Structure formats: structure tokens, C-alpha cells
């Protein structure tokens, strides 16, 4: 029985003996409570002392007799059985209900006679999905399945993750967010708008589940590389309005049709939300900030990191997955991180977040102060290379990256001036890694190392190019462009998936620097250790745990990330390393510590297999 049903039944039992009179008859709550029995009978309503149903459909709301002006009370009490069971996505198994279950739960005649295994259901659905030529149609079909049968949805996704991840994640999810108002069917999360100011705790209590461990929240202002999409995504949406003119003029837009709230009004709403979350779900609930605009993302993370268990996926998750790829790539290009020079196109959440974590990792490896290791990292924003002469006009999160150098106005000139060995795009601006830029990157071949390093020098004939912006249309370059323009020498990874490319008879396989490598395992590690705060060392541990799972067979294909088919194993290992570091740092509250953290992580994972019902 769900928490919502338990909550409703508790209210009914507490009201035993009370009677309510209505114009269509007497409703006796005592009798209603007594009818709900262990046999699982589906009890909709008791009207005039009789159970609804019998020989026909009972008018439980009095709609047949009421006029349009009269108010109705939508009473409903049920235990998952019969027709209701089939419409409960958590428990529905569709044609997989056994003969015994069909008898025990009043399903006879409600299903066709054939009984399918979950595997056969999965095979049929994958066949149907592959008939769709438009990715958005596949997305909608997957969402329909989730609303009908959750376990089958997740089994489908787990068993076919490489094929279906681009459908439910980037790049298709970008189009789904853009068109969400038109394809909207039923809400799957919470919507907290300015209308709920002063009532947020009450709104959270409307959610039927009580044991909440992770919350993903957005204000919709910076979705992927698509900008302000308002109230059109994620489990909890903080709707403060939108500045997107197209949405404001869209009759199907589902959010507040007003300009975005800012300043004190915005801050007060977020403060009320964060306070209510801790009050309702406890100290150890993880709040993952997602797709907030730069000007709010950094401030929120800085403000709440000391009082709440918070994690910003765009800043910290992206940084961790990119750092993992860089650590792994060292086996292909040689040297240490400190031997390389990094240039970023994009100095927002992702760019500065990645840069800071790289600097922290180099500092950890070399024992040099992080202020010193930052000097190996350069950033380009919309106004050019970030240099000291611009420092006074820079946003606070860009200032640590303002180094001494003459002004440079564009990326190509910055590449020629800095001569980076690693080029990273996080700008959200498509096709900015031009042929000239990639050719310039490929021309910087040799890097001299300290004499203490053996061998004394190495030849960097493999420029590392990461085009991270999502969705595919916003990628700084394609895999084919990177390989072709670098004459097949580039090591390439992107934020959105690209197909393998054949170059001069060699099949080049691009990697995907996907945040989904990190945030599931990272979150699980925090939960299973009972961590109370997120520390930078936990992010470094996650990066290192991901990097070591890239094997020789993957490197031979040019990959710097392991195949996504192994994501559950990958996540279990990341969770174990994160939990281990949390215990080392004294941040863990779940005691005693499990002996085998990997096995413990695996035991905590969701299983999509069907359950057997009594």
C-alpha cells in the first residue's frame, strides 16, 4: 500500500463513528473502514450503507443528481486490487500477472488470457519503440510506459541503456523540455510557484512519499544549452516566472505567465524551500540543484553548502565527470595533469566548476597551492580571454581565472597564444571549435617535461578536445569534425552522443562526458554513508573511481570513458569510493561502516524485477 493510501486510511480510521450527510445519501465512515480488509478487495465508496459496485456503477460523487453549481466531495478509498491495481504504475504488471494473482486480485476478465514474462514484454516494447522514426515520439512512448508500469520502464532502460539513454536524456530530452507544454500529460513531480509562498512546507507534505532521500530541483532558467524554459522540467520545479517571450505567449505553457522574480523575492522563496525541505525530510536529504542560471547557481551553492547536504550537478557533477576523463586520457597522451595546459571556451557554471576541480586535483598531486595550480588553466568568455586587466569588471566566479596576459578577443587567437594541450568547450554555443581552431590544436605537438620525469619528454600528437555543450545542436564541434580536422589524432569526447567515425580505415569511437556517469553513484555514496555535507574530496574520489574503470580495450578505441552498458557496476564502484572518503573525513553518520562498500552499494540499488503478489 502506498503512503498516500496509508495516509487516507489513517484519516478514515481516526474518524470512526462520524457520519456525513449529503443530498445523495448517508456516508458511514465506520462501515467504510470495516470494508477495507486483508483480502485486498477494492472499496471505492459506501453510499446509503452499501458497497459501491454490485450490479452497476455507483454514483459515488453524486454527479448524476448534482447541478453544475453544486460542490462535490471526491471520496475514494482503495487497496490496490482489480481495476485500480492495473492503473497503479508502481504495482501494475500488465499481462505478466499470473493465474494465481489474477484470481487473488480480481483481475479476471480485465486482462487478455495470454500471460507474458517481463522479458517478453520488454522484447515487444523494444520492437515497438524501434518503429518510431522521430526521437521525440520514442520519448513520449517511454513516458507513457513510466506512467503505466514503472518496473517495466526501468527494466527496459537498464537492459537497453545505450540505446535508450539518448531518448530519455540528451539530446532528445532537450526537445522534450522545449515542447513540454504541448506534450504534457500528467505531473510527475512538484510545482512550487510564487503562489505557494508561505505554504511550501504544506506543499511538500502533499507529496505521498515520506522517505525522501534525494531531491532534484530547478528554477528552469538555464536548461541544457537552451536557456530559460520556465516551468517545464524536473521532479521539483521552483516556478518564479519566465523571461522567455515565446513561452509567455504560448497558450499551452503550464507555468506562471509573468517575468521572473529576482532579488529578495527570489531569495525568500528559495530560503523557505530549503528550510521546509530540511524540516520535512531531515538533515540528510540530498538536494541536487539542476539548471539554475550562473548568477543564482554559484550563490545558492555557496550559501547552502554549509547548512545543507547540497550538490550542483552543472558545477560539480560536470566537473567530476570531465576530470575523470582527463585522468583516464593521461594513459593515451602521457604525463600528469600538471604537465598539461588547459583552455576553456565558456566561463559559466560548467567551465569554472571543471577548472576548479582540475586545479584541486593538480594541487593534491603536486602539493602546490591551488592559487598556483590555477595558472595552468585559462578561460575564454564572450569578451575574450579572461586576463588580469579585466578583473574589475568580471563576475566573482571568474576572477580566480584572470591571469597576466595581453587581451585576446577570440578563441582562435587564444589557442595560438596559450598553446593548450587540452581544449574544453562548455559555452553552449554550437560549432565554435572551427576547422582553424582544431588544426591549431593539432599543431602543438611536443611538450617538454621536467628532467626528473622518465621519459624526459613525450610527444603529444593526440590533442585532447572535449565539446561538452548540450544538446547536439549546441556542441562546439562534431566527432567527425574533430577527427577529420586533426587528421585522426584527436582524442575526442562530447556532452551529447555521436556515432563512431571511420577515418583512413580506422574506426574512431567518441566518448561521451555524460554527467549520468557521476551523479547516480555520487548520490548513492552520500546516502549509504549518511553524509551530512559535500566536500571537494568526495568529488575527487568520484572522478578517480570513474577513471580507473576505463580498460585497455577501451583505450584502443580512443575512449576515455567506460561503456555505459556497465553503468550500474560503474555507479556501485563510485558510490563505494565516495562513501569510503566520507568515512575517512568524518562526514559519515551511518555506523557501523559496511565491510564491503561495493557489495553494500549494489544491495542498495533498485531492482526493476516484478514482485509476486499474495
Any overview of this molecule?
The chain is an alpha/beta fold and 614 residues long. The protein is built from 25 helices and 20 strands. The strands form 6 sheets. The chain has a 7-stranded mixed sheet with strand order 12-11-10-13-16-17-20, sandwiched between helices. Strands 5-7-6-8-9 form a 5-stranded parallel sheet, sandwiched between helices. α14 (294-304) links the parallel β8 (286-289) and β9. The radius of gyration is 28 Å and the shape is globular. The chain starts with a helix and ends in a 10-residue tail after the last helix. The relative contact order is 0.08.
**Low-confidence parts:** 1-57, 446-459
Shape: globular
Strand order of the largest sheet: 12-11-10-13-16-17-20
Q: What share of the residues lie within helices? A: 40-55%
Structural class: alpha/beta
Distance from first to last alpha carbon: 13 Å
Total helices: the number is 25
Q: Calculate the mean pLDDT score and round it.
A: 86
Main β-sheet, in a few words?
7 strands, mixed
Number of strands: 20
Kindly provide the radius of gyration, computed on alpha-carbon positions and rounded to a whole number of angstroms.
Answer: 28 Å
Describe, in short, the structure shown:
InterPro entries: Aminoacid_DH-like_N_sf (IPR046346), Malic_enzyme_CS (IPR015884), Malic_N_dom (IPR012301), Malic_N_dom_sf (IPR037062), Malic_NAD-bd (IPR012302), Malic_OxRdtase (IPR001891), NAD(P)-bd_dom_sf (IPR036291). The protein is 40% helix and 11% strand.
Summary tags:
single chain, 614 residues, alpha/beta, seven-stranded mixed sheet, five-stranded parallel sheet, 25 helices, 20 strands
Amino acid at each position: 500500500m502506498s503512503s498516500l493510501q496509508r495516509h487516507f486510511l489513517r484519516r478514515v480510521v481516526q474518524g470512526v463513528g462520524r457520519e456525513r450527510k449529503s443530498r445523495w445519501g448517508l456516508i458511514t465512515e465506520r462501515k467504510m473502514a470495516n470494508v477495507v480488509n486483508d483480502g485486498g478487495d477494492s472499496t471505492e465508496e459506501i453510499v446509503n450503507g452499501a458497497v459501491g459496485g454490485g450490479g452497476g456503477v455507483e454514483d459515488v460523487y453524486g454527479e448524476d443528481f448534482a447541478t453544475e453549481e453544486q460542490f462535490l466531495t471526491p471520496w475514494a478509498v482503495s487497496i490496490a486490487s482489480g481495476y485500480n491495481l492495473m492503473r497503479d504504475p508502481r504495482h501494475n504488471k500488465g499481462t505478466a500477472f499470473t493465474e494465481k494473482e489474477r484470481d487473488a486480485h480480481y483481475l479476471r476478465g480485465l486482462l487478455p488470457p495470454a500471460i507474458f514474462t517481463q522479458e517478453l514484454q520488454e522484447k515487444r516494447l523494444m520492437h515497438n519503440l524501434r518503429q518510431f522514426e522521430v526521437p521525440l515520439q520514442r520519448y513520449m512512448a517511454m513516458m507513457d510506459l513510466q506512467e503505466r508500469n514503472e518496473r517495466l520502464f526501468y527494466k527496459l532502460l537498464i537492459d537497453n541503456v545505450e540505446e535508450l539513454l539518448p531518448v530519455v536524456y540528451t539530446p532528445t530530452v532537450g526537445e522534450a523540455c522545449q515542447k513540454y507544454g504541448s506534450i504534457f500529460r500528467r505531473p510527475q513531480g512538484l510545482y512550487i510557484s510564487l503562489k505557494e509562498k508561505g505554504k511550501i512546507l504544506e506543499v511538500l507534505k502533499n507529496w505521498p512519499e515520506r522517505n525522501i532521500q534525494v531531491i532534484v530541483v530547478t528554477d528552469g532558467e538555464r536548461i541544457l544549452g537552451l536557456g530559460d524554459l520556465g516551468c517545464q522540467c524536473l521532479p521539483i520545479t521552483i516556478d518564479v516566472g519566465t523571461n522567455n517571450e515565446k513561452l509567455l505567449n504560448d497558450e499551452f505553457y503550464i507555468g506562471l505567465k509573468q517575468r521572473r522574480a529576482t532579488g529578495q523575492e527570489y531569495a525568500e522563496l528559495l530560503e523557505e524551500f530549503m528550510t521546509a525541505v530540511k524540516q520535512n525530510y531531515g538533515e540528510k536529504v540530498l538536494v541536487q540543484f539542476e539548471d539554475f542560471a550562473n548568477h543564482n547557481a554559484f550563490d545558492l551553492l555557496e550559501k547552502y553548502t554549509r547548512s545543507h547536504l547540497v550538490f550542483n550537478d552543472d558545477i560539480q557533477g560536470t566537473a567530476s565527470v570531465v576530470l575523470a576523463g582527463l585522468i583516464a586520457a593521461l594513459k593515451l597522451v602521457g604525463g600528469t595533469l600538471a604537465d598539461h595546459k588547459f583552455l576553456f571556451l565558456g566561463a559559466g557554471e560548467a567551465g569554472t566548476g571543471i577548472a576548479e576541480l582540475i586545479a584541486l586535483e593538480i594541487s593534491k598531486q603536486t602539493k602546490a597551492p591551488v592559487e598556483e595550480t590555477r595558472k595552468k588553466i585559462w578561460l575564454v568568455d564572450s569578451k575574450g580571454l579572461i586576463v588580469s586587466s579585466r578583473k574589475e569588471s568580471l563576475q566573482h566566479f571568474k576572477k580566480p581565472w584572470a591571469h597576466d596576459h595581453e587581451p585576446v578577443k577570440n578563441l582562435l587567437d587564444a589557442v595560438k597564444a596559450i598553446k593548450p594541450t587540452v581544449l574544453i568547450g562548455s559555452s553552449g554555443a554550437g560549432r565554435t571549435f572551427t576547422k582553424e581552431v582544431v588544426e591549431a590544436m593539432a599543431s602543438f605537438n611536443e611538450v617538454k617535461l621536467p628532467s626528473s620525469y622518465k621519459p624526459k619528454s613525450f610527444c603529444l600528437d593526440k590533442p585532447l578536445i572535449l565539446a561538452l555543450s548540450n544538446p547536439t545542436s549546441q556542441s562546439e564541434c562534431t566527432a567527425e569534425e574533430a577527427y577529420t580536422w586533426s587528421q585522426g589524432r584527436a582524442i575526442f569526447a562530447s556532452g551529447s552522443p555521436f556515432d563512431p567515425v571511420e577515418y583512413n580505415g580506422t574506426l574512431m569511437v567518441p566518448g561521451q562526458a555524460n554527467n549520468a556517469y557521476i551523479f547516480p553513484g555520487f548520490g548513492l555514496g552520500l546516502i549509504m554513508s549518511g553524509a551530512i555535507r559535500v566536500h571537494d574530496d568526495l568529488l575527487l574520489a568520484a572522478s578517480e573511481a570513474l577513471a580507473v574503470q576505463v580498460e585497455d580495450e577501451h583505450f584502443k578505441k580512443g575512449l576515455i570513458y567506460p561503456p555505459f552498458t556497465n553503468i550500474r557496476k560503474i555507479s556501485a564502484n563510485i558510490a563505494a569510493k565516495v562513501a569510503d572518503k566520507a568515512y575517512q573525513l568524518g562526514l559519515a553518520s551511518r555506523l557501523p561502516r559496511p565491510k564491503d562498500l561495493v557489495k553494500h552499494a549494489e544491495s542498495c540499488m533498485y531492482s526493476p524485477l516484478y514482485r509476486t503478489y499474495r
